[in-house]
Amino acid sequence: RLAHFKEGEPYRYMYRKLFPELRATQLCLRYETTPVRQQPIAAGVSFPKPVLRTPAPLSAPVSAPAFAGHTPRTRRPFYMAVKTNMLYDAIAVPNIGAEFYAGRNWSVGANWMYAWWKTDRKHWYWRTYGGELNVRKWFGKRAQEKPLQGHHLGVYGQLLTYDFETGGRGYIGGKPGGSLWDKANWGAGVEYGYSLPVGRRLNLDFTVGAGYLGGEYWEYISLEDCYVWQATKRLRWFGPTKAEVSLVWLIGRGNYNNRKGGRR
Predict the structure, then answer these.
(1) Domain map of the chain by residue range?
(2) CA distance 240 to 210
(3) Which of 26, 44, 76, 77 is an S-S bond match for 254, by CB 3.0 to 4.6 Å?
(4) CA distance 205 to 247
(5) C-alpha span between 50 and 26 (Å, rounded)
(6) What is the pLDDT of residues 162-203, one digit of tens each?
(7) Which ranges of 30-179 would DSSP assign to H, the alpha helix?
(8) How deeply is 106 buried, as exposed, middle or buried, from its count of CB atoms within 10 A (0-12, 13-18, 19+)?
(9) How far is C-alpha 243 from the geometric centre of its chain's CA atoms?
(10) What is 80-251's CATH topology?
(11) Full-model pTM
(12) Rounded CA separation 190/212 (Å)
């Protein structure tokens, strides 16, 4: 139990600082010398030769007390999370994200989404793809117990393109027919969130973010079998640019939540 408490950190500290003294043995010898008076020896008097006595051996060697316990792991814990934003899933935009714990309650993450749906007969287009990078600082009681849970503050950057049209006027983010790098819309902002455990290796993460979203977008209309360009505009949006309710799967050595009763 001690070896598993708080990912084994208290046990490893005791292993380094306290256990070596318990395993050590010190042997101290105390002795006193008695001076011998020299007596004059008369001529012709014989005396017995001194006999050298060796000390009796110890009955049993003194050894360090055996320590019966769990051998600490030499491999460090590894914390990683794979997640999906269920708000995007609900509007048919598949997405996936990954987050890595960098130490000292910091983490870095990346998200990617991709949807390319269309129905030409109804002139219905629902297309978007893009990604996001973020850096988070975790804090609070839960964050001290285990990484990647509790409160977090962070900054993020976004890059995306889109094509939305529902039978009338459509909007294309970036250059029509181009790639993500051809005048795609981009954004940056700050975020706040909270991640709570819902299973042994599952968390729910709630996050909102606000910042700036800019770039170029094209307006068009559907006319018979053609799409007619109407205007090219600049997007300058300040406000909410991120909403997240993510299901998080915890991966890595020691990256699991407390069970009921405090066992890990």
Answers:
(1) 1-29+67-74, 80-251
(2) 4
(3) 77
(4) 7
(5) 33
(6) 988 887 788 988 877 777 777 789 999 999 999 999 999 999
(7) 86-90, 141-145
(8) middle
(9) 21
(10) Porin (2.40.160)
(11) 0.66
(12) 10
